[in-house]
Design brief:
alpha+beta
Length: 767
């Protein structure tokens, strides 16, 4: 893992340190020397880089994701492929993962959940539009920056992590967030990411994942079956609309899920504007649509229509207008036909009445008008077309010859229903029967009025009051505080008049501000500071007492338990006891740790322990590592206890080096350096040169006690020839000695040679 630290990749990126490790890659902090900036470098793990197909796909998809650029996606700067390694250079994010944030807070309120979820959905919308599916959306891959914005990491990398259709070891960390189709090993598309986003939203709202089990397979089966409980069953205060969005994204049926991130974002936006909204999905939505085809559009429908219109070309927009006009003309034709039939019937009745009057009248004079005249009067009347909802600049007066449409002298008003430039009213109204050529006046929208009660869903009472004062309408503003379990203390619950109402000068406005809940909140697992902040928001004078206990399960400084427990009704001046974790007081298992690490682990307990390091030999633990501790692992510690750490000096044995064939001097040096005493035994040998080791008393690579004596047999060379016998002719003194005799002769003559020389001299001088 640390093999790359200090290296300079492509003569540009200097690897500084490891900052993260995943299933497929290691992430390092690095310095880009060319641009003088810190970056993150993700290097494919060695065991995966040996698979050429994996490397090819990694490189291809890394290049694809490098073309993705969005504020909510971790930027990719560079992609490199060499014969040795593959790596990606990304922007270095300073923040924490959503997983770390959830571990700290437990669960998030719905406002914060929506805030993060919309950013994730925007990131997915952008990536999906470029054909990139993430396939591993989970809190671990979502980074939260200091300003509250988020960035989704690992785009494009995760998709090659599922080359196998089984739940491999790499998938274990993601099994709580995978879609049913991933669990089945089937093909996945954009909707798989939306399912995972739904799971992340579920966890943000409740603090737990929707499915859990003892094995990854057990969790995967639950995803496939789709039997998750609704978030509101686990946590109070979750608006129905947000729960509907979450569960719709998590639908186990792929075809019943959100089709795109854009669709999901649309509903999120609708919910953000109107937190009390509810949605209809599936068959209910189809039935509702078919039964109310002519009903006014919801904001969500208008949002979708506007998005579709913005995506049309000018030719498409003209065709769409022509289609709408044709539909209106057909509708007018049907109405006119109906009217004509009614008018004809009425005329017939009138004619009959007139005839009767003529017959019955005394003077025989008719009082009715000429039927032809009556008919012509009817034909002079026309129905007023419907201009409401049309864009003023698209209305062509020549297209409506039966009336005079005044598109010049229009009235203008603010409208929260119609965007700027659209007709919001007309006079006379549509379908009204008027004289042919009647002038029709139009009222056009100026857009949304600034003088309205704004969207206060994320405003405190003070913020809304200041906003209304800034309108300078002389409003008479009154505030009332009410208890509300779903709205955070000091935030606006509702207003009178309601949100979106246009305000007039000197109007009365009442702002209802939340007192929060007077029930004991869930504080277990939260930090002491967070717990006290939540209690401070309750409009009661509470007597908060702090107690401390050691805990194996709860991190130091976090709440173990409360008295009273979550959900209890609180009263004025009530005593609240918060039991805070001191962390673990159990002696940790330090075996095989280095002395430095062992001491650091003990110091982290913050118990004022006195640590003493002692040494002892060990045949099991390598030299320099902890053998055991006193007290032993698992024992309870008290503040200021003394802890003894026993560090291995080894087993007192050393490995015997192989000295066969080496010179006597070299063999002696090697054995003595290894801690042994050397004894030399010289022997004649016909095959081994003189001075080389023939054998050693202990086999090479055996481990024996240091200081042991090892005997080596060193060759003296071939054994010398035997000395001459008595029958051998004596050698005269003038004769030169043979080579063999020179070799056999030593500096100091032996007793045998002295005797031989003495005999030789005697024989030579004998008369």
């Amino acid at each position: 893992m640390e093999a790359y630290i200090g290296r300079l990749l492509d003569s540009r990126y200097e690897i500084l340190e490891v900052i993260g490790t995943g299933g497929m890659a290691v992430v390092y902090k690095a310095l880009d020397h060319r641009l003088n900036r810190l970056v993150a470098v993700k290097i494919l793990k060695d065991e995966l880089s040996r698979n050429q197909e994996f490397r090819r796909r990694f490189h291809a998809e890394s290049q694809a994701v490098a073309m993705v650029s969005h504020p909510n996606i971790v930027g990719v700067y560079d992609v490199s492929k060499t014969a040795e390694l593959d790596y990606i250079v990304m922007e270095l994010i300073e923040g924490i993962s959503l997983k770390q944030y959830l571990e700290k807070k437990g669960n998030l309120n719905w406002r914060e959940t929506l805030h993060f979820s919309m950013q994730i959905a925007k990131a997915l919308e952008h990536a999906h539009s470029r054909g990139i599916v993430h396939r591993d959306i989970k809190p671990h891959n979502i980074m939260i920056l200091k300003d509250g914005s988020i960035k989704v990491a690992d785009f494009g990398i995760a998709r090659i992590g599922t080359a196998q259709n089984t739940l491999t070891r790499e998938a274990l960390g993601s099994v709580h967030y995978i879609s049913p189709e991933q669990a089945k090993g089937a093909r996945v598309d954009n909707r798989s990411d939306l399912y995972s986003l739904g799971v992340v939203m579920y966890e943000m709202l409740t603090g737990v994942t929707p499915y859990d089990g003892e094995t990854p397979v057990a969790v995967a089966i639950q995803h496939i079956n789709g039997t998750a409980r609704c978030p509101s069953e686990l946590m109070t205060g979750i608006p129905l609309g947000l729960e509907q969005i979450t569960m719709h994204a998590m639908n186990a049926n792929l075809d019943a899920r959100y089709v795109s991130a854009t669709d999901m974002l649309r509903d999120m936006e609708e919910f953000r504007k109107t937190p009390t909204i509810t949605f209809r999905f599936g068959a209910a939505a189809v039935a509702a649509a078919s039964s109310s085809a002519t009903a006014p559009k919801t904001d969500a429908e208008r949002y979708a229509s506007k998005a579709r219109a913005e995506s049309m070309s000018p030719q498409q927009r003209r065709a769409e207008r022509a289609r709408r006009e044709a539909e209106k003309a057909e509708e007018r034709r049907r109405k006119n036909l109906t009217i004509a039939i009614i008018v004809a019937a009425a005329v017939l009745v009138i004619l009959i009445a007139v005839v009767l009057l003529v017959v019955l009248s005394d003077d025989g004079e008719t009082t009715q008008k000429d039927p032809e005249t009556a008919t012509s009067e009817v034909q002079d009347e026309v129905r007023v077309p419907d201009f409401v909802g049309m864009l003023l600049e698209e209305i062509d007066p020549a297209a409506y010859p039966e009336v005079q449409v005044d598109v010049i002298n229009v009235e203008e008003e603010y409208s929260n229903k119609y965007d700027e430039g659209y007709v919001i009213a007309q006079s006379p109204e549509s379908d009204e029967l008027v004289k042919n050529g009647r002038r029709v006046t139009l009222t056009v929208s100026l857009g949304k009025s600034l003088n309205v009660i704004p969207d206060y869903s994320e405003m405190t009472g003070d913020e809304l009051m200041q906003y209304l004062k800034d309108l300078q309408l002389g409003l008479k503003i009154e505030t009332q505080k009410i208890s509300d379990e779903t709205i955070v203390k000091d935030y606006v619950v509702r207003t009178d008049p309601e949100q979106g109402t246009e305000l007039t000068k000197n109007q009365n406005v009442i702002i209802y501000i939340s007192l929060g809940s007077n029930k004991m909140p869930d504080l277990v697992g939260q930090t002491l500071d967070d717990a006290q902040n939540k209690l401070d928001k309750i409009e009661l004078e509470l007597n908060v007492q702090i107690e401390e206990e050691y805990s194996e399960e709860v991190n130091k400084g976090c709440i173990i338990s409360t008295d009273p427990e979550e959900g209890a009704e609180l009263r004025e001046n009530q005593r609240i006891t918060l039991v805070v974790s001191l962390g673990s007081n159990k002696m940790p298992d330090l075996k095989d740790e280095s002395p430095t690490n062992a001491k650091a682990i003990l110091d982290a307990l913050d118990m004022g322990l006195t640590v003493t390091i002692l040494e002892e030999s060990s045949e099991e633990v390598e030299e320099g590592r902890v053998i055991r501790t006193d007290p032993e692992a698992g024992a309870s510690l008290k503040k200021n206890d003394t802890v003894r750490i026993y560090v291995s000096t080894g087993d007192g044995k050393a490995e015997v080096p192989d000295v066969l064939g080496k010179s006597q001097n070299e063999a002696t040096r090697l054995l003595e350096d290894a801690g042994f005493v050397v004894a030399v035994n010289e022997v004649y040998d016909e095959t081994v040169p003189e001075g080389e080791v023939i054998s050693q008393s202990v086999k090479p690579e055996d481990r024996i006690a240091e200081g042991s004596t090892i005997t080596i047999d060193v060759s003296k060379g071939p054994q010398p020839t035997e000395p001459p016998t008595e029958t051998t002719a004596p050698t005269t003194q003038s004769e030169e000695p043979t080579e063999a005799s020179e070799d056999a002769q030593s500096d100091e003559p032996t007793e045998a040679t002295e005797n031989a020389q003495s005999n030789e001299t005697t024989e030579g001088t004998e008369p």
